What does this fold into?
Amino acid sequence: MTDPRNPAPTVDIIVELVDRRDRPIVLVERRFPPHGWALPGGFVDYGEAVETAARRESREEICLDVDLIEQFQVYSDPQRDARKHTLSVVFLAAATGTPRAADDAKAIAICPVWELPRPLCFDHARILHDYRRYRDYGIRPHLSFP
Amino acid sequence: MTDPRNPAPTVDIIVELVDRRDRPIVLVERRFPPHGWALPGGFVDYGEAVETAARRESREEICLDVDLIEQFQVYSDPQRDARKHTLSVVFLAAATGTPRAADDAKAIAICPVWELPRPLCFDHARILHDYRRYRDYGIRPHLSFP
It folds into this structure.
């Protein structure tokens, strides 16, 4: 019944720190390759809803209990991760307090949306570009037609 | 690199026939168990974007070239399919012309949204309930917290 010929589902979470001016977001510096900065996130476990995975990964990677606001968009371009085909369900979430790096995160950055660290891994530059259009102008991402 | 311990990603498509009064939607009677009515859809292939899978499944199952309007919502309750854990990326799409049953579809129903066939398989009754709230009132689905 298991078919390895499907992309692996993941979640990524855009966490806004809502008790700070300009609602900065949290990025993590990856401990493992590909090195660089990324949204907190990870694989969805079998038997786990994507919402549960998003809250678990936020706790494990940046030590924050997040309040999920909405599903933002699914990103599934086969080239988005060079290692294997994954699809990511991206969530918007709100949190308060101070994130700490844990698990696969080597360091944390608390970033205003106009000043993001580089390099950004995977398709996270595209996701964050789409997020800014949505946050600033209310425009949802285009569908991808690779 | 393949990890069978993730849910398998699928797509389902809510296809509105936009050249008919009241934009009815297309449901298919399943050829294989679980028997009953369902949205057209199926598994996402490795190397395939979810948008590509949605258009492919629409062609294969109901013989229509659809115009994807938007990603509606991801449904991932571990209980949504009794056979194994799947998650579904549900799309809204528009099409014209006459659908025909093919592939895994035994029959087709063209349904106004207030008159759906029964039984509906999987969590498709819930998806279609959420769809009506969105179509009629602009209210997006709640996140699931199983």
